[in-house]
Amino acid sequence: MMGIISWIIIGALAGWIASMFTGNNKSMGAGANILVGIVGGLIGGFIMSLLGGTGITGFNIWSLIVSVIGSVILLSVINAMKRQRE
């Protein structure tokens, strides 16, 4: 149970930080931040493993950094797709 709560906290922080980097902060709620952070963690972990580095290793600063990187990538792709529709 504590592991799930830890992932939600890391996801929320990563999503919130990434939304500030990409300019989505005002348009995203807490639920969206958590979802983006969790998916971003998966993306960041996958990219880090491709580069030979370590991905998500637990509840620590490195996991937060990897999650933020993945979340920024995810939000950048979402923003690009939104711009194409307009």
Automatic annotation (TrEMBL):
Membership in a protein family? Belongs to the UPF0410 family.
CC terms in the record's Gene Ontology section:
plasma membrane
Q: InterPro entries from the xrefs?
A: MFS_trans_sf, Transgly_assoc
Q: How is this protein positioned relative to the membrane? A: Multi-pass membrane protein
Q: Which UniProt keywords apply?
A: Cell membrane, Membrane, Transmembrane, Transmembrane helix
What sections of the protein cross the membrane?
Answer: 6-22, 34-53, 59-81
Q: Which SUPFAM superfamilies match?
A: MFS general substrate transporter (SSF103473)
**Name by which UniProt lists this protein:** Transglycosylase-associated protein
Location comes to:
Cell membrane
Chief location of this protein within or outside the cell: membrane
Sorted alphabetically, which PANTHER family does this protein's record hold?
A: UPF0410 PROTEIN YMGE
